[in-house]
Amino acid sequence: MEEFKSLNKEITYLAQFISEDRLARIADVISLRTRNITVILEDIHKTHNANAILRSCDGFGVQDVHIIENKNRFESSSTSSLGSHKWLTLNKYSTYESNVSQCFRTLKSEGYTILATSPHHGNTHISEVPLDKKIALVFGTELDGVSDEVLQLADGFVNIPMFGFVESYNLSVSAAICLHSLRTKLMNIPKSEWQLSQHECLELKKDWMIKSIKQGKRVWQRYLKTKGS
């Protein structure tokens, strides 16, 4: 209860620096955010593709993205993501003995079923994936797809139906198709089953408000100093 009071107090303070229209926009977007679907990006080396996927995640209301960095380091770019990385929760795995294993263990402990996207393994179309459990979709490199380690540790595999000579879509297009399919299905489920919790909403609202304010970090630091004095 005290934590909720503290968050509400912080939000009230920040609200004086933001327009009513912006506050309404933040509230609308948060109400449609979900963690029932998440995305894992494994060692993607083309920055524009990775950032295009972040843009799709934001557009489809997927809050969390998990980034596995083995050989390649991810760098966010406002040019290709249109700043969408600011509104997402990015979780990076780069310092573990096995970054894939650590990422998968973390997500499985949170109740996720991990599905690797691959045109060569399994025959479950993305449209056939049930949403009775939380889903984590893994996307691999543009050239080789997901790694052997992902293939061994994933709970299952999904693909996108193809109707031409090519065997797969561009990586960012594939992600957008998958997210559109899952999001469409999600919208037929009661909101209470996939929306963020009240506490998650407040934490996210505070974070987005700070990012929406000009020199928001400085404003926030000033508040913390006042609070501590």
Comma- or semicolon-separated keywords:
229 residues, Alpha/beta knot, 2 domains, six-stranded parallel beta sheet
Write down the CATH topology of the largest domain: Alpha/beta knot
- CATH class of the largest domain equals Alpha Beta
Helix content: 40-55%
Count of helix runs: 9
- CATH level-two architecture of the largest domain: 3-Layer(aba) Sandwich
Structural class: alpha/beta
Strand order of the largest sheet: 3-2-1-5-4-6
Note the beta-strand portion: 5-15%
- End-to-end gap: 23 Å
CATH superfamily of the largest domain: SPOUT methyltransferase, trefoil knot domain
Largest sheet report: 6 strands, parallel
Q: Any idea what the shape is?
A: globular
Explain this structure to me?
This protein is of the alpha/beta class and 229 residues long. It folds into two domains: 33-193, 3-Layer(aba) Sandwich (Alpha/beta knot), CATH 3.40.1280; 197-224, no CATH class. It has nine helices and six strands; from the N terminus they run ααβαβαβαββαβααα. It has helices at 2-15, 20-31, 47-59, 78-81, 99-109, 148-153, 171-186, 198-212, 216-228; strands spanning 37-42, 64-68, 89-93, 112-117, 134-139, 156-158. The protein has a six-stranded parallel sheet, with helices on both faces. The radius of gyration is 19 Å and the shape is globular.
